[in-house]
Amino acid sequence: MSFVRNARLLAKRGARLSLNRSYSDDMKLTFAAANKTFFDAAVVRQIDVPSFSGSFGILAKHVPTLAVLKPGVVQVTENDGKVTKYFVSSGSVTVNEDSSVQVLAEEAHNIEDIDVSEARQLLSKYQSEMSSAASDKAKAEAAIAVEVAEALVKAAE
């Protein structure tokens, strides 16, 4: 009997908490890197991000989330339907209860600005550095550089 009573109490509390959340119909995006601010509290329709727990899309009223970005493409769909893609090397994404989103990248560039042949040369350079690395530290640094360069080539193609 006490289990049923506790379950009802928890259900009532959960319903009351969900009614108190202040979700917004608009999603404001702030997307910045050390080299540039791409969006500053701009209202957008959708954001797709690559994270180490899997790639996911964000819409208004998304559940609050914190994730670590992995090297890949952040895609922003504006309210008018315009889609812009950016390569990010790493960083974080935060989704707040008020539907505001912050994407903070270590480095980010518009996909249109990436030269695929230069990206391939970079990948080749880091692969050779990884194969010739003598210490564990040098191997780990080269492996990270290879991962980023592979994602850069994939994004540019």
From TrEMBL:
Chief localisation class: mitochondrion
InterPro entries: ATP_F1_dsu/esu_C_sf (IPR036794), ATP_synth_F1_dsu/esu (IPR001469), ATP_synth_F1_dsu/esu_N (IPR020546), ATPD_C_metazoa (IPR048937), ATPsynth_dsu/esu_N (IPR036771)
Top-level taxon: Eukaryota
GO MF terms held by the record: proton-transporting ATP synthase activity, rotational mechanism
Keyword line: Acetylation, ATP synthesis, CF(1), Hydrogen ion transport, Ion transport, Membrane, Mitochondrion, Mitochondrion inner membrane, Transit peptide, Transport
Residues in ATP synthase F1 complex delta/epsilon subunit N-terminal domain copies: 27-108
Compartments in which it is found: Mitochondrion inner membrane
Statement: the UniProt record of this protein carries the keyword Cell division: no
Domain F1F0-ATP synthase delta subunit C-terminal, first and last residues per copy: 115-155
Pfam families in the record: ATP-synt_DE_N (PF02823), ATPD_C_metazoa (PF21335)
GO cellular component assignments: mitochondrial inner membrane; proton-transporting ATP synthase complex
HAMAP family, sorted: ATP_synth_epsil_bac
Stored PANTHER family: ATP SYNTHASE DELTA/EPSILON CHAIN, ATP SYNTHASE SUBUNIT DELTA, MITOCHONDRIAL
Subunit structure: Component of the ATP synthase complex composed at least of ATP5F1A/subunit alpha, ATP5F1B/subunit beta, ATP5MC1/subunit c (homooctomer), MT-ATP6/subunit a, MT-ATP8/subunit 8, ATP5ME/subunit e, ATP5MF/subunit f, ATP5MG/subunit g, ATP5MK/subunit k, ATP5MJ/subunit j, ATP5F1C/subunit gamma, ATP5F1D/subunit delta, ATP5F1E/subunit epsilon, ATP5PF/subunit F6, ATP5PB/subunit b, ATP5PD/subunit d, ATP5PO/subunit OSCP.
Biological function: Subunit delta, of the mitochondrial membrane ATP synthase complex (F(1)F(0) ATP synthase or Complex V) that produces ATP from ADP in the presence of a proton gradient across the membrane which is generated by electron transport complexes of the respiratory chain. ATP synthase complex consist of a soluble F(1) head domain - the catalytic core - and a membrane F(1) domain - the membrane proton channel. These two domains are linked by a central stalk rotating inside the F(1) region and a stationary peripheral stalk.
Recorded family membership: Belongs to the ATPase epsilon chain family.
Protein known as: ATP synthase F(1) complex subunit delta, mitochondrial
